[in-house]
Amino acid sequence: MNTTIHKAGSRGVTRAPWLLSWHTFSFDEYHNAERMGFGALRVLNDDVVQPGHGFEMHSHQNMEIVTIVLSGALEHRDDLGNTSLISAGDVQIMSAGTGITHAEYNPLRDEPVALLQIWVEPEQRDIAPRYEQRQFAAAERRDTLRTIIAPERGGGALWINQRARFLLGSFSRETPVRHAPPAGNGVYVFVIAGTARIGATQLDARDGAALSETPAIDLLPAAGAELLLIDVPMAAARRPRREG
Q: Among residues 12, 114, 117, 139, which one has the fewest Cβ atoms lying within 10 Å of its Cβ?
């Protein structure tokens, strides 16, 4: 098994009066030749947006864009006519495809919004843009790894235009879990909260681990841990676009 650990403090960072954004991989003005993505996974941003602020209308093409709201709420609108409020526990996915223009905004007056935004290279390029959103209740992911995004349609998960899978788990007690990626895929483990162990290695909050060339990954989340697993093909090798 090939393992690379990314400690939380080693990430790139963008600081603005209204935004704090930590970048696991190269993004915007943060460039690290050793952090150009992990297979088809291109961006993993950990954002906090202050009340009354956000990202103005901007465009993307040929990227699968996933937003997971951790606390607070995020307002979304796009040129497909979608307008929605993404609250804590909600997951959003967009296929940018041939092109989509959207804005994201914190509509709250007194509470920041904390979110993860993740970009994955698509399997098929130039598909029609689309938007989908769903809430995953805490009970669905308690003491287990719940698939929230999958390459198969149906089954309660959001669909992604890639041979990728996202799993989310919140643990009330120390619970061994195993994930077996398909052949050719690797897994990026991101600790949202608490701690977890992979063998003798401890991961703390906001640490990440890139794991490849293994038939299965065994994790030991501690009580209070919240984990995100991103299972992606390793064959993708294109560099990330510098889009905001």
A: 139
